[in-house]
Amino acid sequence: MKSIYEWGAVAAIVLTSTAGDVLLSRAMKQVGDVGQLRRRSGLLAVVGRVLRNPNFPLGILAMAVAFYSLLFGLSWGDVSLIVPASTSLTFVTNALAAKIFLHERVDQRRWVAALLVAGGVVLLAA
């Protein structure tokens, strides 16, 4: 039964962390070059533009849920399982989400790396 809680926490971490990464990336791409914006309009303009983007607070919320899922996972399972599994699977899902939702070019080398990481998780879980 403990294993269900551990892997449920890992799944929650992976899903919410990936969602947070995608939402924050989308928000920052919509904001544009913050260095150029800061030089043109000042730091407060950058902060205001970021905070007004609806993807930003949603991304922060998703990352907060991922963090608390990590805390629950660590209370239920071993750090030697929870952290590597959630981190490595997040790497895989981030590559997939970047391709699907952000239309980024994910090259063959990243896909091979993601498959190797997934294989490591399988070895870890065995």
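(ticket continues) Second input and output from the same batch:
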Amino acid sequence: MGGLTFVFYKTGLFHFFMNKERMFAFINGLGPLGILGFILLQIAQVVAAPIPGEVTGLLGGFIYGPVLGVIFSTIGLTIGSYIAFALSRSFGRPFVDRFVSKAVMSRFDYLLHHKGAFLVFLLFLIPGFPKDYLCYILGLGHLSTMEFLVMGSFGRLFGTILLTLGGDFIRTNQYGKLSILVGVAIVGILVAMAYRDKIERLFRRWHVYSRRTRKRRSPRP
């Protein structure tokens, strides 16, 4: 842990993000600037990768409803993802090592050489993958900024919709629908966890195959 992440822990901001009531009071206290405050919260929870985004995602649906909640969350998540990606690209591996553990880096080291945007989309789409850490890792790789933003934004969208709907169901006391939504999310997470290693091995093999294919197609000097 280091840098901005360390600051978030030491100042108590990590615990602030874990407390839905405190964040709700904070945003309401901003009045007309509440939307900006919420977007900034989403940006911060991405840049400070250890902070879980589930609470802010639920909060968006609770305050703004299913449509605006998804829109505002997506704006914040996209900006936050870009900041993490840009910081990584600007300052390189020593900077990223302060945010991302060696264990996570070793799991996804193949992404540093992979150019497949569709692979990035899948990683952002699958539940249980450390999406905020991926933003830093991908900044060290070969994806263009536009590829990263498009694939990352659309990949996050499914999870954002689920969290926002959950927050909206809580606000409107639709606990039956919330239970169904939670069930769907749990099944998705369990399936992803059960097959995570196989999925990661498949991605690594895909990566190796893609590199070999590019080498065969590249003109020889």
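Agent notes: The chain has one domain: 3-215. Confidence is low (pLDDT under 50) at residues 1-9. Closing as not reproducible unless the customer responds.
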